[in-house]
UniProtKB/TrEMBL annotation:
Gene3D superfamilies: 1.20.5.30, Laminin, von Willebrand factor, type A domain. GO terms for cellular component: extracellular region. Pfam families: EGF_CA (PF07645), VWA (PF00092). Keywords: Coiled coil, Disulfide bond, EGF-like domain, Glycoprotein, Repeat, Secreted, Signal. Residues 25-204, 299-474 form the VWFA domain. Its main location: secreted. This is Matrilin 4.
Length: 535
């Protein structure tokens, strides 16, 4: 829990020392809601006077304003009203508490929009005079403070939040500037607030020596602003280089700093970048996309986990993942076919291999899939895939056509049934199995599902939001190698085929005839010898 607690035993009286280090524009925002009892408000009044007595006030020194608030905001005096401590003290002693609600956000809004305007006595931002708000409250705000406090901080106002007794620590943290340990204070009771004031004076007196010039909002640093004595300098995030103007940043690794649009991988070079494709694929003329799986077509069935552990928001990411896979496939009736199965405690075919003829239709269908929830029956899903999804009735092409059959199982947890039998049968039937696991998926089960070599057929991601890298691996492994799974059956009478067919046949024929001819010659020679001997 952040905040400083003050023990009266540890806090002794300290000699009054005025701040000599430089000017401030400081506005005190005082809670005078009905929860602050009259005698408690008197201690708060004394707290203000003690702090002001130790500030070097004047037109060219520190300027002070005071606001009180409850359900409304009342300006006691602005930054331009008084330049003598005695006048300020008199005005503070004449404050009559409002004794209503606690609209702290409204008070911060007032300070930002009115109290720190040049018309009310705040010095222009270009003079780099620190602007400070000290909020003193004893309760929980009845309006929102987080957003308006953030706006005030962004406008260059440094906010100290002082909570007394019943104050809400979360609200104090939401209001205060960072670092919170230097801007959030919780005082146990109003009896201790004057003693706390002695310590807080030192904090205010040190502000000018530690001016955060970055808080003025006009530094123009693209990434980070770092304050130093009498100024500031800009710094870039990791992977970026500060440019000659001292403010702008350019990605050292340009691929990480821009929306490069590379389909597979972006490679940074000095001042530029280029896209590359997986081995075996070529870059298109646009310099960004890669050729699809055109060297061989497949029948692909995706089996996705729709169990309760996935959760709705992650299931949407799973659907995006499926569509990323579809993007690199050459989908057509005679090309690659795609089917989708979802499982939980039961199994449901979302669409079979023969339902959609284009990638666009498949992607639309995927986005319409509704989340099932419930259990994780991965073995049942594998059985369904083998017996139904890869049947000719659902669009799988006959084995005689030599079209590769690929099953991709996506899961996020341990199966509630035995999957080993159906994983084995699927692979024995000629289906190449890929296993993709996320989160609490069990590696042993993924390996059992995956085809050999296992390392090329199973992938894992710790989180649903980081699955993108898996797609790149699948692109390389799912796309058949050149010539594998050729779907075109060519007539040997075609000219081009004949040219290729004849040499192969001649070589094959000559190889197969060599041995019988040699045996025949040996036999003839043996017969000749026998005839010669008889003569």
């Amino acid at each position: 829990r952040l905040g400083l607690y003050f023990d009266p035993v540890l806090l002794g009286a300290a000699p009054a020392v005025k701040c000599k280090t430089g000017p401030l524009d400081i506005v005190f925002v005082i809670d005078s809601s009905r929860s602050v009892r009259p005698f408690e408000f008197e201690t708060m009044r004394r707290f203000l006077i003690d702090i002001i007595q130790n500030l070097e006030v004047g037109p060219n020194a520190t300027r002070v304003g005071v606001i009180q608030y409850s359900s409304q905001v009342q300006n006691i005096f602005s930054l331009k009203t008084f330049f003598k401590r005695a006048d300020m003290e008199k005005a503070i002693n004449s404050i009559v508490p409002l004794a209503q609600g606690t609209m702290t956000g409204l008070a911060i809004q007032y300070a930002m929009n009115l109290a720190f305007t040049v018309q009310e006595g705040a010095r222009p931002l270009h003079k780099k005079i620190p602007r400070v708000v000290v909020i003193v409250t004893d309760g929980r705000p009845q309006d929102r403070v987080t957003e308006v406090a953030a706006q005030a901080r962004d406008a260059g106002i440094e906010i100290y939040a002082v909570g007394v007794q019943r104050a809400d620590m979360n609200s104090l943290r939401a209001m205060a500037s960072h670092p919170l340990e230097e801007h959030v204070f919780l005082v146990e009771s109003f009896d201790l607030i004057q003693q706390f004031g002695i310590q807080f004076q030192d904090k205010l007196c040190a502000i000018d020596a530690l001016i955060n010039y970055c808080n003025f909002g006009n530094h123009s640093c693209q990434h980070k602003c770092l304050s130093i004595p009498n100024g500031y300098y800009c710094r870039c995030n990791d992977g970026f280089t500060l440019q000659a103007d001292g403010k702008a940043c350019q990605a050292s690794d340009i691929c990480n700093g821009i929306d490069h649009g590379c389909e597979f991988k972006c490679v940074s070079t000095v001042g530029s970048y280029h896209c590359i494709c997986p081995e075996g694929q070529q870059l298109h003329a646009d310099g960004k996309t890669c050729n699809k799986c055109k060297s061989g077509h497949v029948d692909l069935v995706l089996v996705i986990d729709g169990s309760k552990s996935v959760r709705p928001q992650n299931f949407e990411l799973v659907k995006q993942f499926v569509n990323q896979i579809v993007d690199f496939l050459d989908v057509s009736p005679h090309g690659t076919r795609v089917g989708l199965v979802q499982y939980s405690s039961r199994v449901r075919t979302e669409f079979p291999l023969n339902q959609y003829k284009t990638a666009e239709d498949i992607k639309k269908a995927v986005l319409r899939v509704e989340y099932m929830e419930k259990g994780t029956m991965t073995g049942l899903a594998l059985k369904h895939m083998l017996e139904h999804s890869f049947s000719e009735a659902e669009g799988a092409r006959p084995l005689s056509q030599n079209i590769p059959r690929i099953g991709l199982v996506f899961t996020d947890g341990r199966s509630q049934d035995d999957l080993s039998e159906w994983a084995r049968k699927a692979k024995e039937s000629g289906i190449t199995m890929f296993a993709v696991g996320v989160g609490k998926a069990v590696e042993e089960e993924l390996r059992e599902i995956a085809s050999e070599p296992v390392e090329q057929h199973f992938s894992y991601s710790a989180d649903f939001s980081t699955m993108t890298h898996i797609v790149d691996n699948l692109k390389v492994n799912i796309c058949p190698e050149e010539g594998k799974g050729e779907t075109e059956i060519r007539s040997p009478c075609e000219c081009e085929a004949l040219v290729q067919f004849q040499p192969r046949c001649l070589v094959s024929a000559s190889t197969s005839l060599t041995r019988p001819l040699a045996q025949m010659m040996a036999r003839l020679e043996d017969l000749e010898n026998q005839i010669a001997n008889k003569k």
